Amino acid sequence: MANVRRYDPPAQGSGSTNSKLGLRGFLLYLLPLPLLPGALIALAEGHVTKALVAGGAFAVYMLIASMTRKGLLVEREYLKRKLARAPRTPYKTVAALFTGITTGLLAWWGADYTLIASALLGASAVLGYALSYGLDPRRDKAGNITLGIDLQDVLEALDAANVRINALDQAKQAIREPQYSAQLGRITAKAREILGTIEDDPTRLSNARKFLKVYLDGAQKVTEGYVKGQNSQQVMPEALKTDFGNVLNSIEQTFDEQHTKLLENDHFDLDVQITVLQQQLKREGV
Questions:
Q1: Residue 87's closest CA among 99, 73, 100?
Q2: Which pairs with CB-CB distance under 8 Å and at least 24 residues apart come from 259-264?
Q3: Is 2 a member of any domain?
Q4: What percent of the chain has pLDDT over 70?
Q5: Is 227 contained in some domain?
Q6: Which range is least confidently modeled, 135-139, 239-243, 246-250?
Q7: Cys-Cys crosslink for 171: which of 14, 120, 223, 280, Cβ 3.0 to 4.6 Å?
Q8: What pTM does this model have?
Q9: pLDDT tens by residue, 256-279
Q10: Does residue 166 share a domain with residue 118?
C-alpha cells in the first residue's frame, strides 16, 4: 500500500465544480473587481506603488476564491463519506490567512491606514471568512471502526479503490460505443456501492480487498487499453470489440454477485474467479 495515492476528489472542470457547489464561494470572485479600476486610476495619477498593491491584491483575491472553491469541494466529499481522511491540503485555512494578510496590507499600503487599524481589518477579514466558509476538517472520520480494525489500512484500501474508479470514469468518457460506456457506468456505480458497504462495516474489507484490487485494476487496464487502441485507429476491429465486451460482462456479473455476498457477510473465496479473470485478460490480450 506504500505507493497508493491519497484520494483527493478532483474538480473535473469548472462545470463539475459548479454543479456540486452551486454559487457557494462564487462571491469571492466578485468582491475584488473594484480593485482593477482602482489600480488603473492610481497608475494614471502616477501612484505606481498603490497601483501595484491594488493589482497584486486583486490577483491574490482571485487565488483565494479558487482555493476556497477547491476546499469546499474537498470538504463536501469528506462529509459524504463515513470513513474519510481529513483533507491533507488545508485549502480554506490557507485562504483565510491569505485573506487576512492581503486585506491588512491593502489597507496599510493602498489606503494609508495605520498599522494597528490595518492589522485589525486583517483579523476581521479572517474572522469573517471563517464564519462564512469555515475552516478545513482536521480529523479523520472513523465511522464504525472497531477494535482489531486499522483505520489507516481501511482508508488506504478505499483510497486505492477510488483512484481506480475515478480512472475508469475518466476513460469511459472516450469510449465511442454507448453500450460499453453505459456498462462501465454500472460497474463503477456497483464498485462505489461496495465501498459504501465497507464504510458501513469495515470488517467486510478482509473479504473484499483482493476482489476490489484485482477486478478494479483489471477493469481499469482493459478500459484504458481499449481507449488507446480506439484512438490509434479509425475503425476498431470487431474481434477486439467482442473481447472488450466479454471482459466487461464478466466483471459486471461478478461485481453483482460479490456485492450480494458481501452484504450477507459470506466469507467467500475469490481465488478461482480472480484466476479466471486474469486468464481471460491474458488470453484476449487486453
A1: 73
A2: 259/190, 259/193, 259/194, 259/197, 261/207, 262/194, 262/197, 262/204, 262/207, 262/208, 263/197
A3: no
A4: 81
A5: yes
A6: 239-243
A7: 223
A8: 0.64
A9: 877 777 776 655 444 445 555 656
A10: no
Total domains in the fold of the chain = 2
Of 247, 260, 115, 275, whose CA–CA distance to 184 is shortest?
Answer: 247
Give CA torsion, residues 27, 124, 76, 224, to 10 deg.
Answer: 70
- Determine the structural domain holding residue 159 and report its residue range: 151-284
C-alpha 128/C-alpha 122 separation (Å) is: 10
- Burial per residue of 154-181, b for 16 or more beta-carbon CB atoms within 10 angstroms, e otherwise: bbbbbbbbbbbbbbbeebbeebeeeebe
All cell numbers assigned to 279: 486468464
> For residue 53, what are the contacts with CB-CB under 8 A and spacing of at least 6?
105, 106, 109, 110
pLDDT of residue 219: 81
The single-letter code of the amino acid at 284 is E
Distance CA 28, CA 68 (A): 9
Identify the residue whose cell numbers are 472497531: 146
Does 124 share its domain with 157? no
Q: 194 with 215: CB under 8 angstroms?
A: no
Q: Are residues 118 and 170 in the same domain?
A: no
Instruction: Note the residue count of the chain.
Output: 286
CA dist 143 and 139 (Å) reads: 12
CB atoms near residue 192 (< 10 Å): 12
Task: Say which residue, 278 or 108, is predicted with more confidence.
Answer: 108
Q: Let me know if residue 90 belongs to a domain.
A: yes
| Residue 24 confidence class, pLDDT cut points 50, 70, 90 | confident
Q: Tell me: do 31 and 78 sit in the same domain.
A: yes
C-alpha distance from residue 163 to each of 32, 184, 192 (Å): 36, 15, 11
Both 248 and 125 in a single domain?
no
Q: What would you report as the CA-atom Rg of the chain, rounded to the nearest whole angstrom? A: 25
Q: 49 with 120: CB under 8 angstroms?
A: no
